[in-house]
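Notes from the pairing session

We agreed to fold both candidates in a single pass and log them together. This is the raw record for the first candidate, unedited. Please don't reformat it; downstream parsing expects exactly this layout.

Candidate A
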Amino acid sequence: MEKYSFTLSPAYSTYKIVAVLQQDGASIRFVMQKRKDTRTKTKLRKAFLDYLDYVKKQEDCPENFKHQPEVEFVYVSREQIKYYLAKSKQNAKKRKAYIGS
């Protein structure tokens, strides 16, 4: 499943104050600070749905990507988003170390 994880670039996440909190196949939960930022929500939803279309075309598409898509937004403070971003950077470093060994 990690092979098909939807990610945002650190620069985009920092600029838009948004992060991926959790993903399970066709279901994703984003955290953001600004509740009224409909433009960013629309772009994230479209990007995720486009990504799902790509994954579904792959031969080894996991079963949980074939379900009805769900996109959810959770609103948190800027500090909490920074925490999620730092946590995702740590996990990325661990994955690189694991892949490199």
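Candidate B (folded immediately after A)
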Amino acid sequence: MDMDSSSQVNQESGHMKYSFIGDTTYSLLLYLLYASEDMLGHTTYYVGNNLSPLALPNKVVMPPMLSFDDKTRLLYRLRCLKYRWSLSRSEIYAQDHLFFSSPLIDNLPYTLLEDCPNFFTNFDYRQHLYNSGNHKERFFNFFTGRIGMHYRGYNPWCKKRILTTDRDKEFFDGLKTYNYEQVNIQRLWDEASEDKRNVILSAYNLSKIDLNALAFRNGVIFSQPLCLDAHFSFSEQRDLFLPYVEKYGAENIVVKLHPRDDFDYKKAYPGVEILNTKAPQQLLSLMGLKFDIAITCCSSAVSSMNKDCQIIWLGAEVDERIVKAYGHVNNPFEPNKQSIL
């Protein structure tokens, strides 16, 4: 379904309606686990290019924003008005930092889904605080929707934040001004019915992946699109993980691809296995896929690893271009969970 199919959305009467606004596989998983089976049966999914291939019912694929000048932003916001009626009559669960989030949500109440574990403590919240008296911000929000620059829930319309980690819980307990709900995704999975689990697995098309074939490989690299986001050359990205591939053996390593990463790991590290699935590692872990060693530059996917897994966290600080692309991303583990060569 594309943007011009709004007349087909949310027309059934007699049931509470729900809207998911997002475009990352992790936030989608969090919603699928959090929502009841009845909610899932009455949800419209507003997604971007990343989630568009997934098998989701009532899916509205938002087109890209071709440029970010004021005129284009305003036209995009006006095009999104066709969804206002449906969204206003639904309970909204959203990622609020996407380019189509603010035009869709505008000033409607919503529940924020974390983008990754430790989502709220990984970034400086002060730059996003809402200031209704700032005329420059009000002017910018006119073109983008009233959330504008005040995403991550720091605005009057975010009613609750769904989070998963103790670190984020302690963060909000310290602020004492923001409503949140902490959930445990393992518990949500354990309590899910077989039908609900099948709905989740079908969304990610996991039935075609033989996880058992990966069981003998004990190491995993969580990739990130460094060539795209940090403008790494082939040799620079290869050299980042090469010492670890050589140490542990390519035949023992699986590369879990980031959805936007098109780096040729087979060429860089002959012998590695590529796990090319839209399913986030958190779901694979729930299904029982475990590793002894997990290596990443700064991917939050390592947060889902079992407690006995050895985590090798390189950190964004290994290259200033990574810091520029992602910021100073906090290590989700204590120092004794880190490892170096």
